[in-house]
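hey so u asked for the seq, here:
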Amino acid sequence: MEAFGKPGIPPTWASSAKDWIGTALGRSRVWYTLGRGIVNEVYWPATGRPQMRDLGFIVAKRGFWAEVKRVNRYRLEATPLFPTVRVVHEGEEYRLTLELVPDPQRDVLLIGYTLEGEGFRLYPLLAPHLGGTGYGNTAWVKEGALLAATGSEALALLGPFLRGSAGYVGFSDGWQDFAQNGAMTWTFARAADGNVALMGELEGKKGVMALAFATTPEGALTLGRSALGEGLETIQEKASATWSEIASPQFPGEDEELLREAQVSYHVLKVHEDRTYPGALVASLSVPWGNTRDDPGGYHLVWSRDLVEVAFAYLALGQFAETRGILTYLAAVQAEDGHWAQNFYPDGRAYWQGVQMDEAALPVLLALKFRELGQLSPNGPLRQMVRRAVGFLAREGPVSPQDRWEESPGLSPFTLAVSVAALSGAALYGFLQGEEAEYALSLSDCWNVRIEEWGYVKGSGLDRAVGVEGHYVRLSPSGPLGPRGRVQVANRAGVAVDVAELLGLEFLWLVRLGLPRPQDPRIVSTLALVDRHLRVDLPTGIFYRRYPEDGYGEHGDGSAFDGTGQGRAWPLLTGERGMYALLSGEDPCPYLRSMARGTGRGRLIPEQVWDADPIPEKGLLPGRPTGSAQPLLWAHAEYLKLYTAYHQRTGPVERLGRVMERYERGSSPQVRHWRREVPVLRLSPTERLLVECRKPFRLHLGWEGWKDPEDVEAEPLPFGLYGVLLDLEDHSEVNFTFFYPDENRWEGRDYQVRRG
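ran it, structure tokens below
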């Protein structure tokens, strides 16, 4: 009998708050997540492909039923670097124990169950989201198995089922059956082409189920039956053996709380490694606020920034093979012009279409650090990746179409810091030679000395209130007048903030990469403002918000982010603040401890923690995870980098020795690079002016108000640029405009640069 209902009801994902994540390694291509004590998204055949919303359980006897995730009384027994996890649910007169064991040889997750309690029976509830969405799925019951399929993707849940039912979510699914009838009364054989759900009644109180994935329903049945035939204990032994073979680092330190979090963080990184596309790690096996919408992307996408953060964590732990794998993967998915897509599926297909300059600079820093450690030759296969990325930075910078939070265009201290380090480092470590190396060093010297001009304000109301001279801003629009104007806040319609009030922790990366010293007065004064306005002291520790008026987070009433909201505190920023503490001689342990405590039951570090009054009915408690991504690989990587730097008495792993040496001693530019987005208004007597453009041009110029006019053809520069180099010598002012021969048109605007 066909199920009744509407097949098109909008589907959602499970909550992003995870208790634990796991995989078997080996040949298996299944990744599972746990949240609220049940199985949430399961990913197959790659980390970028979630195939189900959740697999939950109803326990029932005559006159009573309960869904265990709603009861929400459970404990988690999980061990880092171990594939098996046990969950124990306890309610009125019952106890349900679940044991999850991924099969290292098959695309199967085994689930052992034991139900205690007189008269109780167990009913699994399965919500398929095959094909990465809840739309267009078909579910049916056949031969003691619950099956679902769409296109070439299928799953099967096998076990000792007495009966089963397939229905439409919200109409004829198993939960609705219990809600309306207090028992399982429906046994619909099929629900086609919609947002579907499956339920079955299990025979007995102890047994094993197999959740299997394949390209056909028959294949899923075959894999599931094979795994059940081999047995839970045998597969558990094999899965444990695959994890014992990985090269696990020996973490220093004796503080059990901090050590445990380091082990969990390493576990999280290893679980996220994709086996279909080695070297790919998605940002998180989660969908932020996924229980409120159907998002085919979520965070199960690769961001080159997050991926490099993970690679640096591996590098800090001496995991060179993992780092090399990430570098070669990055080279494989790089665009021809040298940048990386804003984010992309593990197979390399772009998802969002934004451009962030830091996502081009960070892979370069990773390659350069690998070179500094003697693990990479500048003349090897990855040289082309570095040259392409440096070319993109040189050609398109310094203004980024998006900042590191993927929101606003402009000049950011974070993006500038990594760009300067990448440009200069590529030359200093031999990846660039000749004219390319000379040009990259000249450009990086110029950008470095202009960071204060572009992003440091003095005498603002914020400065006067604290008694400091000035501070670095988080972001500044490009233009000739420096950090002025207002910036539209993303996720907050109609809200704009004056640039001088736009604080953030981005400036800490200037110190992290060795450009200024930690004691630089501009750094110290900015930190005073950040600690006053962005720091949040919560029951679990010290955390920081991204910037004032942030709109990415739950609303004040705890309702989910829906395109607008209120930004919360980010544990990864606690890690960045802790790294500065380490560099400036402070104790970083309070920051490490805050990150370790701002977690959920499984100690997974979230993207954000709740920083307002508790709302228990929505699971929002001060200093604990919100509905944002959990875990966030970037946060776990930040924890590992700070943990290792503290215990090994080393500096930040991202820092390059030759770059630090160059800028600590104050490398002054000899040439100022003029670009339309960041024009130069004044030169020192010792500097020359290089007028640049991304296409051929003729410079029509004159002196001191257009005296002695002349035309100069631009010459090709490295990386596809064109320029005219001017020496003002005895002149006090140069005036110029552009003519573009290929387009036969004038710029239509005059410019001037003064000397002295």
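The mean pLDDT is 95. The two ends are 87 Å apart (CA to CA).
lmk if thats what u needed
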